[in-house]
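Lab channel / #folding
Pinned by the channel admin:
"Please post every new chain as: sequence first, then the structure tokens as a reply. Keep commentary short and put observations after the output so the thread stays searchable."

First post following the new format, from NK:
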Amino acid sequence: MRRSIGLDEPAAPDIEITRMRRRHIRGVMAIERQVYPRPWTPSLFLSEITAGRTRCYLVALAGGSVVGYGGLMCYGDEAHVTNIAVEPEQHRRKIGTRLLYELIREAKRMGATAVSLEVRVSNWPAQRLYGHFGFRPIGVRKGYYQETNEDALVMWTDDIRTPEYDRLLDGIIDQVPEDK
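Reply from TO:
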């Protein structure tokens, strides 16, 4: 299951995606501090990973080190991606794609039929990634990112439990090189 979309990106075949645990929080925080002006706190991550059946947090590991992470909350038939981040040196290696793929699979397992997320209006690479997964813009949250007063684009994909969406996911993951 080590695959991703077929952009002109180098493969990262030695990546393992697994559940986030307390021991991963230090590595998650190292990335969090690099990519967000107002990072979450370790205690917030700890509360999220211990919140039970409504949450799923994953890490991407390379050689035992955290190189990416993502989170999801699910209530009823709606899931919401809370965050996806990849160590800047590891960008464009399909790690974000792998994380999003696994988060959507988990959302389906948790009973969701739709998934939403917010993304900075200036973050075109992430918007393209989400578009490959069928996310489409549905609105804007003005000044959502308080540290920069940047707007967030709200994106949504629904009908994730249909055979058509399964084929979309299969097509995305089939374009990622297998682990060696």
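NK: Residues 77 and 112 are 4 Å apart (CA to CA).
TO: also worth noting, The first helix runs from residue 25 to 35.
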